[in-house]
Design brief:
Length: 311
Amino acid sequence: QTATAEQPPQPSPSQDAIGRQPARKRVVSDFDFGRTLGEGSYSTVVEATERATGRVYAAKILDKRHIIKEKKIKYVNIERDILQALHHPFVVRLHYAFQDSQSLYFILDLAPNGELLAWIRKLGGLAEACARFYLAEIITAVEYMHAERTLHRDIKPENILLGSNMHILVTDFGTAKMFKKDEPDQRAYSFVGTAEYVSPELLTDKAADCNSDLWAIGCIAFQLLTGRPPFKGSNEYQTFQKVLKLDYAFPPGVPPHARDLVERILVLDPASRLGSTQRGGLRELRAHPFFRGLEWHGLPAQTPPPMAGPA
Ligand SMILES: C[C@@H](Nc1nc2c(c3cc(-c4cn[nH]c4)ccc13)C(=O)N=C/C2=C\CC1CC1)C(C)(C)C
């Protein structure tokens, strides 16, 4: 198409105003699938390179027959809808979704620096400045989800990934719950999370709400500081007993402010937890002395402190 002097080139009908291609439906053959990154209960996550652009993503692949046999279709649709609805720098983004005869494919952000859990294990916990920074990012991400009427319900260090810039990407919404605007009872009754992070109220009256995600944040805070979750039994039942009895202890060397923050969150009565919905929500955590000096605004634009283990 040649542009004459007086007539600028008109974008051809297949191009939109600024010459961009409209988003074309992707198919399996658009991608080369590579190494396995993680295994979920009903899915595998592998590296996926888009042939046309060379862009590298993560592909969550679900076997359709297995999903149908296990009656998980509802959960898969819930996860896709929630991933499509959430837009935040600290939440993994869904770029494309498609299927072939055997599988469903979700094409998502790749988190090249893997799971936060791997870093905690490698370093035996994080230095106070790192624990502060990453706890603040986790609180920011969960606060955003709660503002979008979404409970994650399975927050844990293996679901908190690290992007190439070492900021967090929260993932695994297969067990999340998004409430409708006018839904009166913002509590969910259908799922129990991972034993080490499950809240006492979920074990006693099966009801999970924002305060249950807050409890998990308290468990993660302990683990960031000490390298291990607060409640860990030799089996799931033992772990549940420890949770119900608030049976945990700090190892020596945890700074007093950090210890105080954990102790104010890991409270059996959900409403009495620092950051509970009854006390005004997660924003209450920002004022705690442990976060003194941290700039809460613009975390995605800040440079994370270099990953380091406890002194
Ligand atoms: C939590 C998940 N594990 C993972 N899910 C995702 C990863 C991921 C990456 C590494 C990794 C990268 N480098 N080294 C390790 C290790 C585990 C990963 C990623 O990059 N992008 C999106 C992901 C998930 C999105 C999808 C849930 C919606 C489980 C264990 C369930 C498979």
